[in-house]
Inverse folding.
């Protein structure tokens, strides 16, 4: 244990996900030896992170504007919504170049043991979007168009216990919307993986999502 501000910095970095005590100590000592301008630049970036980041009023993605660039893009298919847990998941899907619809960020997944229920997630906003009760991007003249009719919701929550519970809950919640297709992003055995190392949940999903060999 160190004393004073150095230990305080180590403790704070240790609270970050994926940063253990040794990594936190290395970062703290690096900052201790850094130039004052580097420290000021880091402190300024952290301040702007807290004060300058907003969330899209439509999909809740991280945005610098009231509406994110994806929701504002008229070339995207407004009838498709891909539901993800966090904004970082959008970046992963976008890199594939396969999906051309819009998104909805839940802000996490159901985790009753840690007090995360539907009210703690952006579930109500999703239902409102599907029901056509949400403002869309204004037209050039400033008027708001009618909310687009949603024809499919693709649930892309993580393939773990919390993600599966969230997907199941959303499936039950949305099943009675007329004309709406609710699908779950397929998951299974990864390319290059060995069957003996695949967990039971992944293997079960692989059997459920099996496709014919052409």
């Amino acid at each position: 244990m160190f004393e004073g501000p150095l230990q305080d910095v180590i403790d704070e970095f240790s609270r970050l996900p994926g940063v253990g005590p040794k990594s936190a100590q290395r970062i703290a000592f690096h900052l201790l030896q850094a130039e004052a301008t580097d420290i000021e630049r880091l402190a300024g970036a952290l301040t702007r992170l807290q004060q300058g980041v907003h969330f899209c009023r439509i999909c809740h993605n991280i945005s610098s504007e009231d509406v994110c660039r994806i929701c504002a893009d008229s070339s995207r298919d407004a009838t498709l919504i891909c539901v993800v847990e966090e904004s970082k998941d959008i970046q992963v899907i976008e890199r594939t170049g396969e999906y051309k619809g819009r998104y909805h960020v839940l802000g996490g997944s159901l985790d009753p043991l840690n007090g995360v229920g539907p009210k703690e997630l952006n579930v109500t906003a999703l239902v409102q979007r599907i029901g056509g009760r949400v403002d869309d991007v204004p037209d050039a003249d400033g008027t708001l168009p009618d909310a687009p009719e949603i024809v499919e919701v693709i649930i892309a929550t993580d393939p773990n216990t919390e993600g599966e519970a969230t997907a199941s809950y959303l499936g039950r919640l949305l099943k009675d919307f007329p004309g709406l297709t609710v699908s779950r992003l397929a998951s299974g055995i990864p390319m290059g993986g060995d069957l003996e190392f695949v967990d039971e949940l992944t293997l079960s999903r692989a059997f459920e999502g099996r496709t014919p060999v052409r």
About this structure: The chain has two domains: 5-52, 75-185. DSSP finds eight helices and six strands in the chain.
